[in-house]
Amino acid sequence: MPNATRAFRIHRFGGPEALELQTVAVHRPGRGEVLAKVLASSINPVDIKTCGGRYPLIREDALPYTLGRDWAGSIAALGEGVSGWKPDQDVYAFVGQGLGAHAGYVIANQDALARKPGTLDHRVASAVPLAALTEWQGLFTQHARSRRKVLLQAGSGGVGHAVEFAKLKGAKVWVTASGDGVGFVLRRGGRIAFRR
Question: Per mean pLDDT, which range of 61-70, 172-181, 187-196 is the poorest?
Fold first, then answer.
């Protein structure tokens, strides 16, 4: 296990110029956690808001702060009590707030991990977790548990991929989209609710 890695951190709020690539310590995973080597991470709107000081849960007294929520990589070490996972497995996850996936290594709870599908490379897999969780919660946890009809706004955006989840559950799906997004939505099985 390495002692140090590189991470993109902010010591002050601002634009991209606030990002600093620094060397940080690599910690041992705790009980129920894994240490993973990050092979790809993605940027979400929450990262941009956090960097700019516009995300209310991260205040100046929390700085310095390592950005990044979504990542894909391979398990480097297991914490005590971890079961069902082994070193070198390819995984991806949403790490939540404060753990910082824009780094060479990240610690994640074993329950947050998913096996990376062999059909996705690490780069693509790293863009899935936050959008997929948002879609799933919006469709099935919060709103559409028993609904058979779903309208999705901005269907060609990240969360608009919920078309596929809704169709898997047998729902009829209508989607708003414009420009190049129309073809994208239609290829995923959505119906355009309104077209200019």
Answer: 187-196
* Architecture of the structural domain at 4-125: Alpha-Beta Complex (3.90)
The CATH number of the structural domain formed by 129-194 is: 3.40.50.720
User: How far are the Cα atoms of 21, 128, 178, 190 from residue 102, in angstroms, in the given order?
Assistant: 10, 15, 32, 33
Task: List, as own/partner pairs, every contact residues 150-153 make where C-beta atoms lie below 8 angstroms and the sequence separation is at least 24, other chains included.
Answer: 150/174, 151/175, 151/176, 151/193, 152/176, 152/190
Beta bridge mates, 94: 70
Element (H, E) at 181: helix 181-187
What is the pTM assigned to this prediction? 0.81
The edge-to-edge listing of strands for the beta sheet with 19-25 is 19-25, 4-10, 65-66
- Longest CA pairwise span in the chain (Å): 57
Our CA dihedral for 55, 57, 63, 64, rounded to 10 degrees, sits at -80
